[in-house]
Amino acid sequence: MVSTWYLVAAALVGTVLLYVLTTSKSNLPPGPPGLPILGNMLQLPSKLLFIKLDEWSKTYGDLYTVNVAGKKIVVLSSAKSSGDLLERKSGITSGRARYIMAGEIMCRNLLYMFMPYGDQLRRLRRITHEGFNIHACEAYYPFQEQEAANLVRSILTDQDDLANTLKHAAAAATWRALYSGPSLSAEDEEKVRRVDDVGETVLGATMPMAYLVDVIPLMNRLPTWAAGWKAWGEKWFWDTDEFFNGLLEEGKEQKKGVEHHVGFIASTAPSFKKFEVTEQEAAWTAGGLFIAGVETSSATLHYFVQAMLLYPDVARTAQKYIDEVVGNRPPMLEDRDKLPYIVAVLKETMRWRPVARLGVPHVADADIEYRGYVLPKGTQIIGNVWSIAHDEAFFPSPETFDPSRFIDSAGRVKKPFPDYHDDIVAYGAGRRICPGRHFANNMMFIDIAYMLWAFDFIVAKDDNGKDIIPDRHAFEDHGLVM
Q1: Which residues bind heme (predicted)?
Q2: How many CB atoms lie within 10 A of CB 455?
């Protein structure tokens, strides 16, 4: 019988060999010096990693290498390097790093974010595109506007827990888009909390050093009876699988009616066979879309409110444009073409404070030659979205919140920059770009427009009558989402 200590020792020896072999043969861009064997591991913070990587970019440029115990990670810190590698070479830079605990054990590679690039991902993206392409999303306009109105009413009722109120609004709209039906019922609220718990647990498992098996992959060979973490992860998968499949069955049964609409599951179920998608895959795809969409959208809306408090002139300008277009009636999604400045406010919010600062690392599926370097097959590639969105070559004075940077001389929204597939870099790049971005853009646009139409944004005062100014750098790290 192979003991645990034997496996750990063998893994450490393998790490040393990997370090020696990759160090002697690599032709990667230079980066910060580190220790023998460990490389830069001890220099990497467990929180706010994007800040450390941004600092290193000031010294080593927009293309540099970090060594984590022999694992080489190339960091991209500009629109140019990101566009060249993650967009124009997306055919060979769309792989995924292994997340053994979160991706393989807890989710069986059924979530987009962990799924290797291949046939399964392409099939699931095709069916997601059917339900969330730019034209399909028009069917969701009515209830997105209803939930924006509900958001305003909720803020009027209770301003003490804005973060939770914004998250509830994002959850309600996303839930209806996926599973059909009217606004969230008390029973639905409990299910939403369960999906939230799934998301928190999965994201927690991706944190550095959360599970030793991700540092020492050989530990995955341990039998379940000798690895309590593996037994727990497998049970968690089956419990979650049963829950997601239950949501799928409910979503398929929803019928269009006066108070209902047909959501993603109900509308795409007839196409499962055509796209060769199993019901299990569809169930996890819907669950994954909810997890990713709610966390990122609600955090973005929170930053929008912060920006309006810090830049009151922007809020007043936005309100002037809204008043000119809608008058006393509430805004609608059909008003968007007449409100380019509000579109620019959304784009600037996502640029100024992208909430998925590092995204999920890509992996090179073949050797890549770039700028005289060679990135070997298997190299991890991180696009530091924070650095890219604050690239002064594209965004002068990047720390300033300035929606006008997205408006051309004719008052229209500028076309995306040449080095970007989409100038909202927070949605990712290449063949890994967020498949639900059109729905998210619609939801956040109408929520932002409604809040600007309904409210003035004024900073609170403390007991001494002094303004309480939000700290623009008080970041709260939730793993993949900031």
Answers
A1: 434
A2: 16
DSSP character at residue 83: I
The C-alpha atoms of residue 288 and residue 248 are separated, in whole angstroms, by 12
pLDDT, one tens digit per residue, over 212-251 is 888 888 999 999 999 999 999 999 999 999 999 999 998 8
Mean pLDDT across the chain: 88
Strands 95-96 and 362-363: what pairing?
antiparallel
| Distance of alpha carbon 165 from alpha carbon 420, whole angstroms | 33
C-alpha dihedral over 100, 289, 81, 381, to 10 degrees? 0
Strands 380-383 and 71-76, sheet pairing: parallel
In CATH terms, the superfamily for domain 4-454 is Cytochrome P450 (1.10.630.10)
The alpha carbon of residue 32 and the mean position of all alpha carbons in its chain are separated, in whole angstroms, by 27
| Residue 107 annotated as binding site | no
Question: Side-chain half-sphere of 239: how many Cα atoms within 13 Å?
Answer: 11
Question: pTM value?
Answer: 0.90
Phi then psi for residue 323, to 5 deg, are -60, -40
Domain ranges for the chain: 4-454
CB 74 within 8 A of CB 63: yes
pLDDT, tens digit, 9 for 90 and up, residues 421-470: 566 788 888 888 899 999 999 999 999 999 999 999 999 999 999 999 99
**CB contact set of 58 (below 8 Å; sequence gap of 6+):** none
Q: Residue with structure tokens 């990693």?
A: 49
Look-up of token digits 């930053």? 303
